[in-house]
């Protein structure tokens, strides 16, 4: 409060110095000094200030009303000469003038807002207190009892077939719920949704204007229990659309396809395009299914523009779809680089796309990335050198699901379908080793709605191999892996020749796209994976042809495992102006290796890890756990087969600085554990009776520098509960230090929000 007074005094002084005539200025007419709201109980003052224009400034200002009024008048004079000094623009919101019309208007607006929100008998009184030309206004609110919906509604529809559809909607899909508070906004949305529902049932011309919804005051004259009266049609101004209740069926679609230069396309894929239309001839019109059809066509990536109109001159709806093709070939290249410990690391990325390669709607993707980027050594982490990485991938994509028709039929309505088949190759050349991974994959993707995404992969084969050069660095690295193996860490398995095969299924619900913009929304993801399933049908649980292919002289690792993971995230905007956000994350997973031929071990990449800038931020990346295990080195990653992780974060705005500087307070918690099978260290094992005693907790504060096109993040985190400590020493918050010790502050730098 003291700081605010000082700032106010400085600003006021500057204003007085710059305004020579301020001391003799008198407010020319009554202005409002303050607006008070009293008596409200069920509708908050913040809500009223947000939605009623006249009471937005219903708070006491930092500086006197006289100064605001004086500068407002002076600014108007300056504005007439098109001169706008910046120090005057700071005071660009003068106090409103007071008169009887203003008072009456705002009483009516407050009363109207209450009525729109179910308080039909609300009364508004006003008291005015004036000193000289400064007026304080108080609105006294008598809310009364709110009105609630009863769902005892009645219906009047001219067309009996249409009446059946409307009655079905009211019973099963209506937005109005029993004992929900009366809101005019809900009634407006009800009309829109009813219209949308009927347009999905074949009523092409139906619109919200045809729906009349009135309050029925016959059953309850007090209007505390509201029943509704639906009347269709009820067009305003007696403008009647004759076909509002007519059912329309679909005719054969007509396509107009132009090449990238505007000429008629050669060999237009009419038959293939017809398969992407979710409605067949003679089906009833549905607005949602036709929108999905347009998305199906657009998602083939074959067309720049997709537009549709309907010919209704005949007895049916004949879709006329106009398409402009994309170029057959697209090539892009990006040259970039990074700097690590002062050493530059360039990289080059190329992508090449060929459309209409094997059929009229497929496309072929080919991409490469080669980098010579700086990385720290495995053994001596202070040693930095450039390492070569090469990634090559190629895939062919088709806009349909190549699955048995019976199975596809059970999926029901869907869109955005794609079948992809591809191959990838990764090569890493470091002083310690040379590692290759040959990947062959096949997957199906489709959508059930705008928010629901599905992925199903029948084939995902990975053939990994590592070659060790005959150098001292390589020998030291192999000794390092053996040392970790003796400590129970299975990192060495990532560098043994391996064959990893799996099939997987993933479902994602997402009603917002992750971005730097704060929004309401939620994301849910669940994944299932079965590794080495076909090995169950082979007596030796190994494929001899893979061993012959690698011919490395080492035993090839074959894995059999099951893996389940889920991820739930919730975002809720807070505050009167919706400028801050509460974010919540809950992640979990379990992976079970049932292959005794591999000592019940998982492929290293299929383990769970925790800790780092986007995880539990008080621990270094992948260094937390498992369980209460005490690691002898902070350089060793700690894998686990069971994961529980959660974070809560309060995000808020701070101040503009070449963008927007935002802040956040957060609490992270979680850990990983191992299965009891195939593991001998009890401190790392998961036990339902006491796992909660091994939950790690961290907290901290973060800054987010938002430049719109990207967001730079800095988080400072400290441990609160360290599960690796003895029972009576797990609480470590008091040991927080910037200078190391038992609980040093962890600095995390990242791009974008952590979740």
Short description:
The protein is an alpha+beta fold and 755 residues long. The chain starts with a helix and ends with a strand.
Explain what you see.
The strands form 5 sheets. The chain has a 17-stranded mixed β-sheet that branches. Strands 4, 5, 6 and 7 form a 4-stranded mixed β-sheet that branches. A 3-stranded mixed β-sheet has the order 1-3-2, covered by helices on one side. A hairpin with a 6-residue loop joins strand 9 (303-311) and strand 10 (318-325). With 755 residues, the protein is α+β, with helices and mostly antiparallel strands. Helix content is 18%, strand content 37%. The two termini are 35 Å apart.
Number of helices: 12
Measured as a percent range, the helix fraction is 10-25%
Distance between the termini: 35 Å
Overall mean pLDDT? 85
Tell me the structural class: alpha+beta
Largest sheet: 17 strands, mixed
Low-pLDDT residue spans: 85-90
Overall form: globular
Instruction: Give the strand content.
Output: 35-45%
Q: Taking Cα atoms only, what radius of gyration do you get, to the nearest Å?
A: 34 Å
Q: What is the number of beta strands?
A: 29
């Amino acid at each position: 409060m003291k700081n605010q007074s000082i700032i106010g005094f400085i600003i006021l002084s500057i204003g007085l110095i710059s305004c020579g005539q301020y001391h003799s200025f008198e407010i020319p007419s009554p202005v409002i000094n303050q607006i008070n709201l009293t008596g409200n109980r069920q509708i908050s003052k913040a809500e009223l200030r947000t939605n009623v224009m006249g009471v937005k400034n219903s708070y006491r200002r930092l500086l006197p009303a006289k100064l605001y009024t004086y500068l407002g008048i002076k600014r108007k004079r300056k504005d007439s000469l098109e001169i706008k000094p910046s120090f005057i623009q700071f005071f660009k919101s003068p106090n409103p003038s007071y008169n009887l019309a203003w008072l009456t208007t705002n009483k009516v607006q407050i009363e109207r807002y209450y009525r729109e929100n179910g308080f039909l008998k609300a009364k508004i009184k006003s008291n005015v207190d004036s000193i000289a030309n400064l007026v304080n206004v108080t609105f006294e609110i008598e809310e009364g009892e709110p009105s609630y919906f009863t769902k005892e509604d009645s219906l009047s529809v001219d067309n009996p077939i249409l009446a059946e559809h409307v009655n079905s909607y009211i019973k099963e899909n209506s937005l109005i719920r029993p004992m929900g508070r009366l809101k005019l906004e809900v009634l407006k949305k009800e009309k829109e949704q009813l219209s949308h529902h009927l347009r999905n049932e074949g009523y092409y011309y139906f619109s919200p204007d045809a729906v009349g919804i009135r309050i029925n005051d016959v059953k309850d004259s007090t209007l505390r229990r509201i029943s509704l009266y639906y009347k269709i049609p009820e067009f305003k101004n007696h403008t009647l659309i004759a076909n509002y209740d007519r059912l329309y069926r679909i005719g054969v679609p007509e396509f107009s396809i132009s090449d990238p230069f505007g000429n008629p396309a050669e060999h237009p894929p009419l038959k293939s395009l017809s398969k992407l239309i979710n409605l067949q001839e003679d089906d009833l019109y549905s607005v949602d299914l036709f929108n999905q059809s347009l998305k199906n066509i657009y998602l083939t990536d074959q067309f720049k523009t997709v537009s549709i109109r309907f010919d209704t001159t005949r007895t049916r709806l004949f879709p006329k779809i106009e398409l402009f093709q994309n170029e057959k070939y697209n090539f892009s290249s990006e040259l970039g680089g990074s700097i690590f410990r002062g050493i530059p690391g360039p990289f080059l990325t190329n992508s090449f796309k060929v459309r209409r390669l094997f059929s009229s709607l497929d496309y072929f993707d080919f991409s490469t990335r080669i980098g010579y980027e700086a990385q720290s050594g495995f053994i001596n982490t202070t040693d930095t050198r450039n390492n070569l990485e090469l990634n090559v991938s190629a895939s062919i994509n088709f806009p349909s699901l190549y699955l048995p028709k019976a199975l596809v039929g059970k999926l029901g309505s869907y869109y955005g379908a794609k079948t992809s088949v591809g191959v990838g190759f990764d090569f890493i050349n470091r002083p310690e080793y040379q590692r290759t991974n040959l990947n062959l994959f096949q997957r199906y993707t489709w959508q059930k709605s705008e928010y629901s995404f599905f992925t199903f992969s029948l084939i995902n084969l990975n053939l990994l191999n590592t070659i060790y050069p005959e150098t001292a660095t390589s020998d030291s690295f192999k000794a390092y892996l053996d040392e970790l193996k003796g400590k129970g860490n299975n990192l060495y398995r990532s560098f043994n020749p391996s064959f990893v095969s799996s099939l997987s299924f993933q479902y994602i619900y997402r009603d917002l796209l992750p971005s730097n913009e704060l929004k309401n929304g939620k994301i849910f993801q669940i994944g299932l994976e079965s590794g080495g399933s076909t090995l169950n049908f082979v007596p030796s649980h190994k494929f001899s042809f893979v061993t012959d292919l690698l011919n490395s002289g080492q035993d090839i690792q074959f894995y059999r495992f099951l893996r389940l993971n889920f991820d739930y995230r919730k975002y809720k905007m807070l505050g009167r102006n919706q400028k801050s956000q509460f974010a919540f994350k809950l992640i979990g997973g379990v992976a079970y290796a049932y292959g005794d031929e591999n000592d019940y071990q998982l492929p290293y990449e299929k383990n769970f890890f925790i800790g780092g800038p986007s995880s539990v931020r008080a621990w270094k990346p992948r260094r937390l756990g498992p369980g209460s295990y005490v690691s002898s080195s902070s350089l060793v990653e700690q894998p686990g087969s069971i994961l529980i992780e959660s974070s809560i974060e309060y995000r808020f705005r701070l101040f503009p600085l070449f963008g927007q500087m935002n802040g956040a307070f957060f609490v992270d918690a979680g850990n990983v554990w191992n299965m009891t099978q195939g593991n001998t260290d009890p401190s790392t094992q998961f036990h339902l009776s006491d796992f909660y005693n091994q939950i790690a907790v961290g907290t901290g504060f973060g800054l987010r520098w938002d430049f719109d096109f990207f967001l730079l993040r800095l988080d400072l985190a400290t441990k609160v509960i360290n599960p690796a400590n003895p029972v009576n020493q797990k609480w470590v918050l008091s040991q927080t230090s910037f200078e190391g010790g038992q609980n040093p502050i962890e600095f995390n730098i990242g791009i974008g929000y952590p979740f």
